[in-house]
Task: inverse folding
């Protein structure tokens, strides 16, 4: 029966499609502005949290965005993070913090080992900042979707040329992608572990 449902029970698929359409319509009615335009600048954050509370939500996932908080050379500005934390606390919401959601500071690449100590330094500073602003327990995801990011950067155009080898003589491009994808994934894992250690040092 389960195989039949998954393979093509027309009534079930129509019911699921209708349910998704109704949920999307309800979401668009409650949140008419686009998430990207509102959340990048944290405008409307207090109202977003109030609406979430009315839906019965007490926990939200928030992306700190390494690329949004650190410029070339390592200069950090955590004002956006503080604003999110303060709004969440005022609304009685608990954020689950993601430190790196794909993007990097402009002077780093996914092929650069320098991102490991830089990320650890960033993670420590974020943890120091949030320790003062958020009640326990504080929950962190250091780097979002490591496997997908490594694949997307090395074997697709989804992330631009972040991890792809520069054009050169004809060769085994599939093998190149496997090699660079592995190196990117290994580097991101090392950065995540360094970030976890840095967070634990201060929190």
Result:
């Amino acid at each position: 029966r389960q195989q039949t449902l998954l393979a093509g029970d027309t009534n079930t698929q129509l019911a699921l499609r209708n349910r998704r359409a109704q949920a999307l319509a309800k979401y668009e009615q409650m949140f008419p502005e686009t998430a990207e335009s509102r959340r990048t600048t944290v405008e409307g954050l207090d109202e977003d949290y109030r609406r979430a509370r009315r839906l019965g939500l007490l926990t939200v996932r928030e992306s700190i965005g390494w690329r949004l908080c650190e410029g070339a050379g390592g200069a950090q500005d955590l004002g956006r993070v503080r604003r999110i934390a303060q709004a969440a606390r005022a609304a009685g919401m608990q954020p689950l913090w993601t430190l790196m959601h794909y993007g990097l500071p402009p002077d780093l690449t996914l092929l650069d080992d320098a991102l490991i100590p830089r990320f650890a330094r960033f993670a420590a500073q974020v943890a120091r900042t949030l320790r003062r602003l958020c009640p326990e327990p504080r929950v962190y995801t250091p780097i979002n979707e490591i496997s997908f990011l490594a694949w997307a950067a090395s074997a697709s155009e989804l992330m631009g040329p972040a991890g792809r080898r520069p054009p050169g003589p004809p060769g085994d491009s599939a093998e190149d992608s496997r090699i660079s994808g592995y190196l990117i994934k290994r580097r991101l894992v090392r950065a995540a572990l360094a970030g976890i250690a840095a967070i634990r040092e201060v929190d």
Observations:
- The longest strand covers residues 94-100.
